[in-house]
Amino acid sequence: IFSQPYILFIGSRAKYKNFPFFLESYANSNKLLNKFEIILFGGGNLTVEEKKIINKLGIKENLIKQINGNDNLLVNLYKNAELFVFPSLDEGFGIPIIESFINKCPVICSDIPVFREIAQNSVNYFDPKEIESLSEVMENTILSSNEKNTLKEKGYAQSKKYTWEKCTEETLSVYKKFL
Fold it and tell me: CB–CB of 38/65 below 8 Å?
């Protein structure tokens, strides 16, 4: 479906999602620019401002593809991505991390408390304010088959902690405490 291996970015690209930072980190690495596209799933078409940033950074427009689709397409994207990057500065939970884990997609994400709680040692973390940090973690993860395979297995194991059955049980136990 795509002409070369890709890095996946999902959903909104609003301010706290740290999208320009992600682009800068990507552009900062010749190793990534020469080998990997970026697939943006959801979040709407690229804005004029985002296109200006892409051009300013010297990223070829054909390296970034924005697509929308259904859950089946998203699952396919997870399963075929070289890496899912989640550079947010703040999140309520981070469902795409769990979705990545279930689909054995290696994850790197911001070193923020909510991601530490969800992912524990199943992802590689980076400083969401240091361009070099993200560039380095992307390179070290995506260019190592060993590292990607390790993250796939750790993530899949971590996903088992987040099932609807477990959610139901824990919610029911909270209700029972109040009855």
Answer: yes
Residues with pLDDT less than 70, the chain: 1-2
Q: Are 78 and 84 in contact (CB under 8 A)?
A: yes
What are the beta bridge partners of residue 125? 109
Strand 107-110 versus strand 37-41 pairing type: unpaired
Determine contact, residues 88/126, Cβ cutoff 8 Å.
Answer: no
Q: Is there a contact between 100 and 78 (Cβ–Cβ < 8 Å)? A: yes
| CB 102, CB 156: distance < 8 Å | yes
Residues 6+ apart with CB under 8 A from 123: 97, 106, 107, 108, 109, 115, 151, 154, 155
- Per DSSP, 103 falls in state T
Q: What's the pLDDT score for residue 144? A: 96
Q: List residues bridging with 39 in a β-sheet.
A: 8, 65
Using CA atoms, how far apart are residues 79 and 74, in angstroms rounded to an integer? 9
3-state secondary structure of 67: strand
Mark 6-35 as b/e (b = at least 16 C-beta within 10 Å).
bbbbbeebeeebbbbbbbbbbbbbeebbee
The C-alpha atoms of residue 116 and residue 110 are separated, in whole angstroms, by 9
